[in-house]
Amino acid sequence: MDRVYKRIEVVGISSTSFDDAVKKAVEKAASTLHNLAWFEVIEQHGRIDGGKVAEFQAVVKIAFKLDQ
Amino acid sequence: MDRVYKRIEVVGISSTSFDDAVKKAVEKAASTLHNLAWFEVIEQHGRIDGGKVAEFQAVVKIAFKLDQ
Amino acid sequence: MDRVYKRIEVVGISSTSFDDAVKKAVEKAASTLHNLAWFEVIEQHGRIDGGKVAEFQAVVKIAFKLDQ
Amino acid sequence: MDRVYKRIEVVGISSTSFDDAVKKAVEKAASTLHNLAWFEVIEQHGRIDGGKVAEFQAVVKIAFKLDQ
Amino acid sequence: MDRVYKRIEVVGISSTSFDDAVKKAVEKAASTLHNLAWFEVIEQHGRIDGGKVAEFQAVVKIAFKLDQ
Amino acid sequence: MDRVYKRIEVVGISSTSFDDAVKKAVEKAASTLHNLAWFEVIEQHGRIDGGKVAEFQAVVKIAFKLDQ
Amino acid sequence: MDRVYKRIEVVGISSTSFDDAVKKAVEKAASTLHNLAWFEVIEQHGRIDGGKVAEFQAVVKIAFKLDQ
Amino acid sequence: MDRVYKRIEVVGISSTSFDDAVKKAVEKAASTLHNLAWFEVIEQHGRIDGGKVAEFQAVVKIAFKLDQ
Amino acid sequence: MDRVYKRIEVVGISSTSFDDAVKKAVEKAASTLHNLAWFEVIEQHGRIDGGKVAEFQAVVKIAFKLDQ
Amino acid sequence: MDRVYKRIEVVGISSTSFDDAVKKAVEKAASTLHNLAWFEVIEQHGRIDGGKVAEFQAVVKIAFKLDQ
Amino acid sequence: MDRVYKRIEVVGISSTSFDDAVKKAVEKAASTLHNLAWFEVIEQHGRIDGGKVAEFQAVVKIAFKLDQ
Amino acid sequence: MDRVYKRIEVVGISSTSFDDAVKKAVEKAASTLHNLAWFEVIEQHGRIDGGKVAEFQAVVKIAFKLDQ
Fold first, then answer.
1. Is J65 an interface residue toward H (CB < 8 Å)?
2. How far is I13 from chain L (nearest CA, A)?
3. Least CA distance to G54: which residue of chain D?
4. Is D37 an 8 Å CB contact of chain F?
5. What value, to the nearest 5°, has the Cα angle with vertex F35 and ends H31 and H28?
6. In whole angstroms, what is the distance from residue F10 CA to residue F8 CA?
7. How far apart are the first and last CA of chain G?
8. In terms of CB atoms within 10 Å, which of A48, B5, H44, I27 comes out highest?
């Protein structure tokens, strides 16, 4: 029961969708951290170029279990 | 004009997308309640498994008209 | 460096997805304003019809650069 | 001392005032629940028709004591 | 279904009540904009004079449909 | 220009309306403080008795100018 | 994966501690609902009597899995 | 019914627990004010010393009835 | 007493300070609107370049009186 | 360890800067209270005159230790 | 005076109490970081098992001084 | 387009101004991290000594691009 988690903030960016931006944030975090457990989307914004949505940006809190 | 609504909180879960998680929440509520009118997404989080997004979870407020 | 931006609120509506609702809001704004720079999603809600999600509504803040 | 309350969200609607919208929400809740104890107004909005306020809508949290 | 709305902030002021301040904000907006659809009260404050409430001020978000 | 204000929180209670609850809070504050300048409503709740609204309670921040 | 949860608000009250108030809220909910899964504390307040804390009140969101 | 309350903010500090910090805040307030009615915990923080929790600090809003 | 105000959001940017960013936002708004009355700072952020603060950005709500 | 603090809200006003407005709030509070310990800026707004910032207003929570 | 702190988010979990969950978060952080200075509790939730509180989870911001 | 950012919280402290506190936070972060991109001020507080502002403390979220 004595698990402890750390929660970090990562900003994922995608040209296709917010879901994809979230996945990119999680997968990037997974490339250097193990035991990722859950995520929470806290902001959704993006860049506009030429009058169209050019980037979906998702700010995601990601929690991972600390080693014991 | 004297309509009254009740608003409940439902958590929908999907392996594919947040939109789908929202739909699952609404459709589950519709299976036992009638006169559903609108919904509001208040939280978006999810579960990570093996370094990848495994579940999209949408917390949705759902409003339905009370019978008169 | 002395750029100034204005930020307005637009509600986009789509029958297919929240991403599409965001795009519709941005594209409508682009039809009368130029120099759109970024957007921020601040609310996500929708209409239910017949127990199913009928409309995805995204409230989006849209920023554009003011002419000098 | 071991009372437990449940708190629900009800949306009352009135053509005359926000106070009346709150009363309608409370009285509707009272028609099916007993031991209502207090309420909290959490949102106030409404519908506009023909350039005039057509409806006052009050979202109200209503608390009632659970039976023992 | 492809409606788009704009939402603006207006501050109505009344010497009599908050409901009246809301109505004044809506009616002023209606004098220059058409297709007003809904409003949301986001702040309620006022001025005190001689130890009495002298003004009720309601900050109201007002949404109107953009022409197609 | 070198005015300084203090802002206190007062809860006014009325059997008739929220506007009246606000007025009662302001007038009570005025009975012991002078130079009241403005107020801000930050919470609106109340007591229910016998299935009806028995009390409107308004939590009001009240600002007054400090003597120099 | 297609689980759906409902989240309700319960107010637990205890004369001894906030932890105990949370437990009372959860155990009361468990007396009529099954499959309770998690809780979230959203408010902590209480009653004072004779200049001492007389009651600890915890407002708790409680989630439970809906039957399929 | 024409009660009016004032609500103040007090920070209680304890070396043992948050519940005790709340009690200390309330009891200190009671040493100079009478008719304390309720409290609300709005922040919980603390000081760390030598890698251990050294102080629990509870910021508490305390309401008391004003004399008539 | 029957004044009505509109409140818009403007983002001022300065290389020197947040105060200057606020002034730039207000002065730009004043170049096309008259009767500006007050402002509220709602966000403060900026751009970093070469490890140093390169831009102070202030998001400011600006209120102006509508003509009668 | 058994210190108790009270936290009050003061609005400082300056014609030159927000930092100066904060200082004015703190120094005014210090003229009647002793043992001031810390402050927190919770709102920043101001008055506009002739299209220019005329006043910087800082709402500041100020904490001071209560005598034992 | 030129201290700089970093603030991280840690989730402590305990089977006995929220205070204990906070302590576990702080003590885990102390096992790899030095100069921990203060903490802030920002969320309190938990897991329910068999209709009883099985875990108290405290999300804690923890600040520590950066080396110079 | 597939950039990913991490966002951390740093507390800068200055004896002169909030702007300087922000700069100190950013410059300290830049001493160990590269590719800093933007910052957001989320809290402004400080220490009082002898009835005067002794320290300006700015809590700043700082974003930097992760290496690919």
1. no
2. 13
3. D1
4. yes
5. 10
6. 7
7. 12
8. H44
CB H43 within 8 A of CB J40: no
* Mean pLDDT across A2-16: 96
User: Is the model's pLDDT at I1 over the cut of 90?
Assistant: no
C8, C14, C55 member nearest E6 (Cβ): C8
- Residue I11 at interface with chain C, using a CB cutoff of 8 Å: yes
Q: How many residues are present in chain J?
A: 68
Q: What is the mean pLDDT of chain D?
A: 96
Instruction: Compute the nearest-CA separation of C51 from chain A (Å).
Output: 24
In total, the C-beta contacts within 8 angstroms joining chain J to chain L are 38
CATH class of J5-63: alpha beta
DSSP string, K42-57: EEEEEEEETTEEEEEE
The fold of the L5-65 domain, in CATH, is Dodecin subunit-like (3.30.1660)
The pLDDT of residue C2 is above 90:
no
* Cα-based angle J18, J23, J25 (whole degrees, multiple of 5): 95
What letter does residue I54 receive in the DSSP assignment? Answer: E
Which amino acid appears at position G47 of this protein?
R
CA–CA separation, I6 and E6 (whole Å): 14
Phi-psi group of A6: left, alpha or beta (phi > 0 → left; psi -120 to 50 → alpha; rest → beta): beta
Provide the token pair at D16.
Answer: 């005359």
> I13-46: per-residue pLDDT in tens?
999 999 999 999 999 999 999 999 999 999 999 9
pLDDT of D55 strictly over 70 = yes
User: Residue A40 pLDDT > 70, yes or no?
Assistant: yes
J41 near F CB under 8 A: no
Per-residue confidence (pLDDT) for residue A1, from 0 to 100: 57
Q: What is the pLDDT of residue K1?
A: 58
Query: How many degrees, rounded to 5, is the angle at CA G56 between CA G51 and CA G61?
Result: 150
Give me G26's structure tokens.
């959860």
What's the token pair of residue E58? 């309601």
3-state secondary structure H17-62: CHHHHHHHHHHHHHCCCCCEEEEEEEEEEEEEECCEEEEEEEEEEE
SS3 C50: coil
The answer, for H7 touching chain F at a CB cutoff of 8 Å, is yes
Instruction: Give residue-wise pLDDT tens across range B38-52.
Output: 999 999 999 999 999
Pick the closest to residue B65 from D25, E28, G14, D17 (CA basis): D25
**How confident is the model over A6-26, as a mean pLDDT?**
98
H7 to chain F: which residues are within 8 Å by CB? 9-11, 59
Percent of all residues in chain L with a pLDDT value above 90, rounded to a whole number: 94
The β-bridge relationship of strands K4-14 and A4-14 is antiparallel
The pLDDT tens digits of the residues spanning K13-67 come to 999 999 999 999 999 999 999 999 999 999 999 999 999 999 999 999 999 999 9
Q: For L7-51, give the DSSP string.
A: EEEEEEEESS-HHHHHHHHHHHHHHH---EEEEEEEEEEEEEETT
Q: How confident is the model at residue F14 (pLDDT cuts 50, 70, 90)?
A: very high
Question: In the numeric block, which tokens belong to residue B60?
Answer: 């949705």
Q: What residue of E is the nearest CA neighbor of C28?
A: E4
